[in-house]
Amino acid sequence: MADLSAFPITAKWPPKDASVLQLYSTPTPNGVKVSIMLEEIGLPYEPHFINIGADETWGPEYLALNPNGKIPAIIDPDGPGGKPLGLFESGAILLYLAEKTGKLLPSDPAKRYETIQWVMFQMGGLGPMFGQLGFFHKFAGKDFEDKRPRDRYAKESHRLIRVIESRLEGRDWIMGDEYTIADISMIGWVRNLIGFYGAGELVAYDELKRVPQWLERALARPAVQRGLDIPKRPA
């Protein structure tokens, strides 16, 4: 069995089986990217719920794995060369798992980079903008008298979701017939935008046709359904 004692996080969240991948996460749009991916590829793993509301990512054990203090993060006991590897940033983890297993990332070099560009689009655009819109529309920002910040993020989110709408013309998935990590990176964010954030009206989601159909296809996948609820929140 792999020795993960060099990772301080394992002292706070001890693994039950140190031979399988350890996931440290919360079922947020960023967190579920990795749990969905793990469910899709069938790689054995052990999830650990990280209570971001209790600032658990800012403790020394978690920061030793991810100095940026965000979820998700992983430890793969069977990393490159058979050595344990700790990794953070959801996009990097998606790429790592795809390359490790040879799944959900095209092998053709051109298509591979095309897929990666859409993951980067989500990381640099969709996630940050949808997240800010969620803050200013649903959370503390909703009480700000000045609505210009909310409207700024609503306008940009309106534009970004139409980039996806355009991309999906004649395609079932971001890369066409092939479901990939590009889709996985976006599922939780689009779902949250119109669900938990309640911002569908602000981005005129009802005007769209292809994105809702794409989201419905994605949410019908059993692995997606499971991954959206991992790690389970304490009762």
UniProtKB/TrEMBL annotation:
Keywords: Transferase. Signal peptide: none annotated. The keyword Protein transport does not apply. One of its GO terms (molecular function) is transferase activity. InterPro entries: Glutathione-S-Trfase_C-like, Glutathione-S-Trfase_C_sf, Glutathione_S-Trfase, Glutathione_S-Trfase_N, GST_C, Thioredoxin-like_sf. CDD domains: GST_C_Ure2p_like, GST_N_Ure2p_like. Residues 18-105 form the GST N-terminal domain. The keyword Transport does not apply. Residues 108-235 form the GST C-terminal domain. It holds the Pfam family GST_N. Belongs to the GST superfamily. This is Glutathione S-transferase. It comes from Neorhizobium lilium.
